[in-house]
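Progress narrative, work stream C.
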Amino acid sequence: MKNNYVIFLITAFVIFIIDQSIKSIFVGGFDWQSSCISLELHYNNGVAFSMLAFLGENLKWLQLVLIFVLIFFMIKDGYLKSYFIPAGILVGAALSNLSDRFVYSGVVDYVAWHCGFDFAVFNFADVMIDFAIGWFLIYEFWLKPKIEK
């Protein structure tokens, strides 16, 4: 079990560092345009699709509390025992986006899809959050029932 916590922390740290490294490239001025996908700097003051942007500076404090509540329940309910890697991915990505709110007053986004329609601008951490949630769901609803049979 102790190794699971170590792997969780290492995973969270690696995801955090990768995401912040990519973001620093865009904050430093990198920009690339194409007809369908552009890599350009955007600051998102809300959460997904700019929801809750009206909370302003209070959003980062709400997210900080929610991340700590998430970690508390993952430890309390034993999720780190089975889900230490996706939990590390989720927490590392969430903390990276939260860090942006404290440093830049908004999340650094940079992948802009505009091929046929404009999609929300996103970043590596957003993709990792989706990946981790997908991992949780696949394990919980598809793999776990097969293992328990």
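Work stream C, second folded protein:
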Amino acid sequence: MLSRHGIRSLCCAAVTTAILGMSGVASAAEEVKIGFLVKQAEEPWFQTEWAFAEKAGKEHGFTVLKIAVPDGEKTLSAIDSLAANGAKGFVICPPDVSLGPAIVAKAKALGLKVMAVDDRFVDAKGNFMEDVPYLGMAAFEVGQKQGAAMATEARNRKWDEGGWKGTYAIINTYNELDTGKKRTDGSVKALEEAGLPKDHILFTAQKTLDVPGSMDATNSALPKLPGDAKNLIIGGMNDNTVLGGVRATASNGFSAKNVIGIGINGTDAIDELKKKESGFFGSMLPSPDKEGYNTALYMYKWVTEGVEPPKYTAMDDVTLITRANFQEVLTKIGLWK
């Protein structure tokens, strides 16, 4: 028979074991998981966002669950998977912004927090879902930097001499998209502030947001240029809208040295920048590294400290990449393969 002392020792040992066991459970439960869902996982842009989201996780002690969501069905399935794997919330660049209401409803039903990056959710009426935290490009401000860069290069080529005589800008517009309108509005404002006369700026609407669409738009504008037009500045909301415009100028007899096209995005301009000569001068490259890191950290603080991210975080940090520096700049943030 056990003595009272023996029984007491066994009880203490049992309690100690139980406490240690509970401690192990608590430790396991302390692992914080967040999801990071992107629409085109194969794209270097999103690979970089993922890499820097994971960097934030390593530095701050949380796990990032990366999932590709190329369509609506896979998006909703991925949210179920995140909940099943113990995630507390997720960052997403959706395959379709109109999925916003469905994504929010699914997240709410599963008790997950959600934040959008790059592409902002819209509701059934096409309005931005401003109640969902979002981090993305500051469209007007980035457009201004694009316009300023084009004006600077034009001055470097002395195109501003004689009151910008012979120099004109063709701006390919897509005003149906709010982001697109803000970018081109910002670009034009910067060109005007640099001294380019308003009557030297031609606007031409695109029917589609691709290279053929911008070629068609620029081709329709070229005959409207006055006879003294020698130098052309080509603007648009992204790389493709400028690439098509530049190609239209080439097919209409303008030499590459008489054309300055600067896009926005960077990753769609790499092949063009590899060419020895082109009217496509460069592109305003945003910061996928910062966007991936910052959104992941925002979500981590939200699920652990209850600090909700700002409803709108505008990113206007862009770098002009040209033939002279694009490989070096892209290598630094993992976009050069």
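Confidence is low (pLDDT under 50) at residues 6-28. No further action is required on this item.
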